Amino acid sequence: MTFPRLRHTLLAAALLGISGLSSAAQASGNAICYNCPPEWADWGSQLRLIQQETGINVPQDNKNSGQSLAQLVAERNNPVADVVYYGVSFGIQAMEEDVIEPYQPSHWDEIPDGLKDPEGHWFTIHSGTMGLMVNVDALDGAPVPTSWSDLLKPEYRGMVGYLDPASAFVGYVGAVAINLALGGDMDDFTPAIDYFNELADNQPIVPQQTSYARVLSGEIPILLDYDFNAYRARHSDGANVEFVIPEEGSVVVPYVMSLVKNGPNPDNGRAVLDFVLSDQGQAVWANAYLRPVRESAISEEAREVFLPDSDYARAKTVDYDAMAEAQRGFSERYQTEVR
């Protein structure tokens, strides 16, 4: 999930052949969701469950966050979608573009304040947490690291990987987590820059693209990544992988939804938003190893997959708008200052 600023590229992206769904949107019993891809976060199961439990048909849609926002802007005078799913920074931009409207769905009060717009323009349905994805079998006898500072130790030389934070958003999320944990803020990334320079002495592996398979193979024993990838490796792929939220702290990255302003099927759209926050809807996310936003909806079985709540207490929400605004400046500093 990437959070670039789109203000000068929205219409251009919308004109790249993104197909409309106007005929489906007008059909009775339908709700159109932009960016509900069946292979991501198990949206396929969610959409089937929505139809089964509510009678509302929600067609699959494979736009990404940026394409969804671009199309909402292009269609602002004749909206096609009813709801939209995207990374939190895109929810903030959609609110600024005035293409979504407030709605406070069922279980609104269970969504933590930092994970929703106060008026309901966007709200989190599930999240990922940054931490350490560790292939225990590839550590050559070294203990599983428990902190950001551990990664600087000589026993982890050549074992630590992180995606290039100047070009990959997950890499930037790792940089934000490290920076905040070491006393920095969105206006000062010096702690993170200093940390990456120290880590450079330990010969880290810095790929440009997702490295899930390289962790499973043992090529990258320790990767800065999201919790849901570590859980998938352990529980779906059978790898001896552990997930660690560093002792100094980390950050939560929300995935959010919104009601489209003047959408063609507003009642159905609201019903869909209510359902994804229901116990049944939230269970789908837990089964896909994403952490549901409603703590009360996590089953005992799902809790056995996730780290204890005491560990997750170390992962904090941030000012996501400020995080998006700071990304370019950090990238420039990383490229010029890190060895």
UniProtKB/TrEMBL annotation:
Keywords in alphabetical order: Signal
Keyword Plastid: no
Signal peptide interval: 1-27
CDD domains: PBP2_Fbp_like_3
Domain of life (superkingdom): Bacteria
Protein name according to UniProt: Extracellular solute-binding protein
